[in-house]
Design a protein that fits this description.
By secondary structure, the chain is an alpha+beta fold. The protein has one domain: Beta-Lactamase. The protein is 29% helix and 19% strand. The chain contains three helices and seven strands; from the N terminus they run ββαβββααββ. The strands form two sheets. Strands 2-1-5-4-3 form a five-stranded antiparallel beta sheet, sandwiched between helices. The longest helix is centred in the middle third of the chain and has 24 residues.
Length: 180
């Protein structure tokens, strides 16, 4: 896969932040030139996790950690807050250029960062992903500040985005017939 950046390039082809229960994509960043249908990909990530759990025949919910291929690794990180709150799933499609532990730690930082900023929006999520779009800049910062010599992402002078109020639209109750 061809990459858009070569200097300090992040070791992932793409990163997805997904609702942990439904598989709905909150936001994603593609770091390569390849284009994919995000809805199909995020739904597949959640479906794979659910399928693996059913195969495990376990009393406890098993969480998929990673899927390894020859030149590709799909890395799963999940944030499960207190009981009764929505979970968050972060999935990275890795180039396998770094140790898997480093990739997991990196995605863990992203998932905690995202959850800490958007926790109220996540808990009240009803399908509107617009509030999460500010995090796209943060995902770009992760890319530009990746420092492979330190084996740790560096966040020089960047603060997490704040929740931005977006215009709210009235609820749609179907088309109404008017008498003309």
């Amino acid at each position: 896969m061809k990459e858009l950046l070569s200097i300090n390039s992040i070791p992932f082809h793409s990163i997805y932040l997904i609702d942990g229960e439904t598989g709905v994509e909150y936001i994603s960043k593609n770091y390569s030139e390849n284009k994919y249908d995000v809805n199909v990909i995020t739904g597949m990530f959640k479906a794979l996790e659910t399928f693996i759990n059913h195969l495990a025949y376990s009393e406890n919910y098993e969480h998929l950690q990673e899927i390894n291929f020859k030149g590709l690794r799909i890395v799963y990180e999940r944030y499960n807050p207190a009981f009764g709150k929505k979970s968050l799933l972060c999935v990275g499609v890795s180039k396998k250029e770094e140790d898997a532990k480093i990739e997991h730690a990196f995605l863990q930082k992203i998932v905690f960062d995202f959850y800490n900023v958007y926790e109220p929006v996540i808990q009240n999520f009803k399908g509107d992903v617009m509030p999460f779009q500010c995090f796209f800049n943060r995902l770009e910062e992760y890319q530009y500040n990746w420092d492979s010599d330190q084996k740790d992402p560096s966040f020089r002078g960047y603060n997490s985005p704040q929740i931005v109020k977006t215009q709210s639209f009235p609820d749609f109750h179907g088309f109404q017939r008017t008498n003309d």
